[in-house]
Amino acid sequence: MGKTAPSLRDVAQAAGVSLGTASRALNNKSNVLPTTRAVVLKAAADLGYKLQIRVPTAVTSKLNTIGVVIKRDPGEIPRLDEFNYTILCGIENECERLGLNMMYASLPVNEHSHALTWSPLLESDDVDALIIVGIVFSDPEVTARIPKHIPVVLVDSYASGITCDNVVTQNVRGAYTGVQYLIEQGHSCIGLIGSAPTCCEHPSISERRQGYLKALADYDITQTYIEDSLLTGKSAYETTVRLLERAPEVTAIFACNDDVAAVVMRAVKDLKRQIPRDISVLGFDDGRIAANTEPPLTTVRVEKELMGSLAVRQLYERAANYDRPPITVQLGTRLVQRSSIYTLANRPELSA
After folding, report:
1. Most exposed among 8, 118, 189, 351, judged by the fewest C-beta atoms under 10 Å?
2. What is the pLDDT of residues 245-281, one digit of tens each?
3. Are 300 and 174 in contact (CB under 8 A)?
């Protein structure tokens, strides 16, 4: 079997430098020390690494390595949630398509996705641009450290006082469409689980609450059924039970994301009520869990992977036109109909 060709990572390890530094040195970037470049070039020559010669352009001369900082949820086992992991996959795929390197770091957040600390990657000289995913920067001192000398795109992230490009979802419109569908199926007593109107709540969740309220108001439904809760299993379960015990007339529940919707469904079943005949359930996001609940969950789909790829394209365009005004891309949503919503007119007691 033939010998495997050496990779850029092999060169970086042999030279004792980071992957980003090796890439910069081999691509003749200006912000690499001559001594470091010499070490990297020697390592590449010794390994027989084949240099990829690119035709210089205004973009490739400025954008080579993208840094990605993504939120890491709290808990005994810190994790990346599926929503943001899918965005990360979109970023990675687009970087590969454009021939860009990617460096990645996670940043711990609290239950409302507010940054708890700082990531060294946000100040790394090894990256030419940054994508920040899912994080709310509420501390002015932390926000002020977001670099201003390189392109930055916020994806489902928020930082007041920062002028940069953004990729967000039409959360208000998406929630409105979902609740409108519930109303069209005959529901007027519609609950809301997964939102708590505080200054700390993630703006995306607040917008979904706004969409719920707007849909009810536009259809002249004055009674709301809201139990304030966090986006956690324990909180969602307890508030669902509390809602249905105090308001047994509720026939449908809108959950602010699919994880919460799955917990809502479990609580409904524990109360010996059937889904969807007794309680219809609507989610938001269309993650993998949505198609695997019992019954499968009707939800509002967010194009998460597309959000990631569009963020890379924004950085690519920004590198070529750094002084252009900031651009916010709002992605639409679509309703994915499955089996968790019941048409009230089908109930025998209502059609008699």
Report:
1. 351
2. 999 999 999 999 999 999 999 999 999 999 999 999 9
3. yes
